[in-house]
Amino acid sequence: MRKIKIFDTTLRDGEQAPGCTMNPREKLELARQLERLGVDVVEAGFPVSSPDDAQAVREVAQALTHTTVAALCRAVRGDVEAAAKALEPAKKPRLHIFIATSDLHLREKLNITREKALEMIAESVAYACTRCGDVEFSAEDATRSDREFLLTALNTAVDAGASTINVPDTVGYITPEEMGELIAWLRENLHRKKDGSPVTLSVHCHNDLGMAVANSLAAIRAGADQVEGTINGIGERAGNVALEEIIMALDTRGQLYQAQTGINLRQIYRTCRLVSTVIGQKIPPNKPVVGRNAFNHEAGIHQHGVLKNPLTYEIMSPETIGIYDNDLVLGKHSGKHAFIQRVEELGYTLPGELLERAFTRFLALADRKKTVTNKDIEAIVGAAGYTIPETYKLHSFVVNSGTVISATAVVKLLRDGEEMEHVARGDGPIDAAFKAIDRIVKVGFQLVNYSIHSVTEGEDAQGEVVVKLRQGNHTVTGRGLSTDIFEASLKAYLNAVNKIIAQ
Ligand code: KIV
Ligand code: ZN
After folding, report:
1. Would you say residue 293 lies in a domain?
2. Which atom from ligand 1 is nearest to the alpha carbon of 12?
3. Band of the pLDDT at 334, cuts 50, 70, 90?
4. Whether the CB of 240 sits within 6 Å of ligand 1
């Protein structure tokens, strides 16, 4: 079977989407998880776009031990230099150069001729090869480009030294039949590398018409060696192809595709959850592979079948992707050893300080809740990883609301051991409490999103609140976890405020 390389661009194309911004710490955490998942390439950012992005690429490059780290650059020397510099600490760096090849983009966006584009490709790829042994070239809007010109552009990149050639369906326009045919034709006509071996042929599909998975799979059948996409399919507009769907399609239908990946399947669920937590966007319940309902059987006839033999209605098992039995519970008498063992069974390796923090949270939760489930533990472990310097800590609060009074909140915070208290009125108790916090911290920002969901089922379920605050062009995500939704809300708000202060 052929091995298909998985190129993850969650930190670059995914992060580019509205509401999906991540801070450098979150990017690093996610990059480490992508390495555990076993992707072949992590595209960490677009260094020339901002100093923050360059720094994030550098930190990811430093942290990953065996995964290729790619950085994006336009086909100009300055971009290549910035990307090469940010990738200096990488064990396996890759420079990823792109330029549009469709006449529409050349004319309307870049205002250059085809000849000029070819010149830029030849120059930038050749220069990149002097800075890095692994260079990928992408023809943006490839699927709407004139075919012969696309081939000329791609061959120009191969002749200049690119070893991976990527065909992006930038606007999600192509259909599976067309994609299969295009890739087969390119496979036939692309030049070979100087050593005579074929280049790695890659596809990068966006999901505007909901065909990104089908298009990527059609490309694989036609000879593509690499698929680019994001976890949970996050990305511009309708998003990129969801990598977990490609990976599980190849695992489930490997015989048909005669292809497999090197992915550690048991890390899939955890990776998808982590992305969802970091960007504060819930995974839709009917999302293929990792949605809450993906392995739930509601209809009696289905339940009956699954009890007799899961294969009746399940083409993959939840355990395969790392969803474990939720019945295995811990309680407050379980002790540290049992807690650590469970954390490890769930696939997490936490450094000492984070483990201590997670255990303290576990004890606090076990005091409030009869049983602590795996989902609770995952939420606790996730929250422990995102702790940033806590300039303000929640000391206590009182909220008062009802149908015949206006809501008020008294909030007391701690800063360097000093107690600070304020009272405020608002449209509901949460609004009042947030206003009280605003009065204490006196930092200008806007609340742009607030969401709450329960981590587990039952009356004593933990609620997770996610808030997004915007200050200028920066959006930060704050999370709070508690069995009390007011407390979870205040913690989430303070977490975001502390992130703004720490920036
Ligand atoms: O969608 C696209 O064309 C891209 C390229 C920069 C690879 O993201
Ligand atoms: Zn893209």
Report:
1. no
2. 8
3. confident
4. no
CB-ligand 1 contact for 228 (6 Å cutoff):
no
The angle subtended at Cα 251 by Cα 260 and Cα 234, nearest 5°, is: 95
Looking at all shown ligands, the one closest to residue 167's CA atom is: 1
Angle, helices 114-131/77-86, rounded to nearest 10 degrees:
30
pLDDT in tens, 124-148: 999 999 999 999 999 999 999 999 9
Q: Which ligand is nearest to the CA of 98?
A: 1
For helices 147-160 and 114-131, what crossing angle results, to 10°? 30
Q: Which of 385, 414, 436 is the last residue of a domain?
A: 385
Atom of ligand 1 nearest to the CA of 9: 8
Domain that includes residue 476, residue range? 393-502
Residue 236 falls inside a structural domain: yes
Residue with CA closest to ligand 1 atom 5: 140
Please give the model's pTM, rounded to 2 decimal places: 0.84
